[in-house]
Amino acid sequence: MDSQQRSLCFISLAFLFITCSSAEFLIQQVTQGRGTENNSSYSLDANLGVTRVLRDERPSSKIVTIAGYSVIKGRGEPYESSVFEAAGYKWRIVLYVVGNANDGGAGYISLYVRIEETESLPFGWELNNVDLKLFVHNPKLNKYLTVTDGALKRFNGVKKESGFGQLIALSTFENTNEGYIVQDTCSFGAEILIVKPAEINSTILLIFSLETDTAAAWYPIRSGYGVGVNNIILLADLNDASKGYLVNDAIIFEAEMVKVSVTNIVSV
């Protein structure tokens, strides 16, 4: 690698590092910089992969309001909502007020959604890529505690329910200072979306630069593409058939980009 190539490599890596660091810093500022006491729209708490966020927007699929929480709790049985439609399918919200012991829910509120009327679906049906968020309304803050784990859900004839055994601790939910229960009334919600994969695949021709250190770099034919990575994969790994990168002399590259924008408001 000559000096010019080394300089370009160094500049690219430095720019990439600065960009990633800046994006991470800005994201932290947005999600963690302020709490609800400062009138922020969001506060964040992550536990074992489950994320809990307070947000202003109502759940888009279903809200269930229970007037008589103490009565429902005294029965000790799961509460099921009426059937509702979301993402082209029929569902119910299933609430365990005293927690679903079979899902580690002792001492918690457990909340699920269950797909319904599946007899009308084709034999061997399966519903994939379901983005599920569950909610608890907090009237005191006028916000919705949004609970998700970021994983896309799968429903089929064997698995018709999905949700969280530990949605919110009962000690928190029933604490009057927290504001989830007002006059023995509380509300829960669900947001169900189906994530559709991209239907169009783009094929591009790449030029590979083969170096003496077994590292491969790739560049698009046209110039002016901004920043990239010079050393993306070892040639030894690329040419190793057991690793499965090359299939029929073709390889697929994917990129994920996060756009972070900042708006500066200047008073006149």
How are the SSEs placed, and which strands pair?
Elements (H helix, E strand, L loop, with lengths): L2 H30 L11 E4 L2 E6 L6 E6 L1 H7 L3 E2 L3 E3 L2 E8 L11 E9 L9 E13 L4 E6 L4 E4 L4 E9 H4 L11 E10 L11 E5 L4 E6 L12 E2 H4 L30
Antiparallel strand pairs: 1-2, 2-9, 3-12, 4-6, 5-6, 6-7, 7-11, 8-9, 8-10, 8-12, 13-14, 14-15
InterPro entries: MATH/TRAF_dom (IPR002083), TRAF-like (IPR008974)
Pfam family, one: MATH_2
Keywords: Signal
Number of helices: 4
At CATH level 3, the topology of the domain at 44-194 is: Apoptosis, Tumor Necrosis Factor Receptor Associated Protein 2, Chain A
Order of helices and strands, N to C?
HEEEHEEEEEEEEHEEEEH
CATH homologous superfamily of the domain at 44-194, by name?
Apoptosis, Tumor Necrosis Factor Receptor Associated Protein 2, Chain A
Rounded average pLDDT? 76
* Largest sheet features: 7 strands, antiparallel
What does this structure look like?
β13 and β14 (215-220) form a beta hairpin. Strands 1, 2, 3, 8, 9, 10 and 12 form a seven-stranded antiparallel sheet that branches. It is elongated, with a radius of gyration of 25 Å. The chain is built from four helices and 15 strands. It is α+β, with helices and mostly antiparallel strands. The protein has helices at 3-32, 69-75, 170-173, 235-238; strands at residues 44-47, 50-55, 62-67, 79-80, 84-86, 89-96, 108-116, 126-138, 143-148, 153-156, 161-169, 185-194, 206-210, 215-220, 233-234. The chain has a domain at 44-194: Apoptosis, Tumor Necrosis Factor Receptor Associated Protein 2, Chain A (Sandwich). Keywords: Signal. Residues 59-192 form the MATH domain. InterPro entries: MATH/TRAF_dom, TRAF-like.
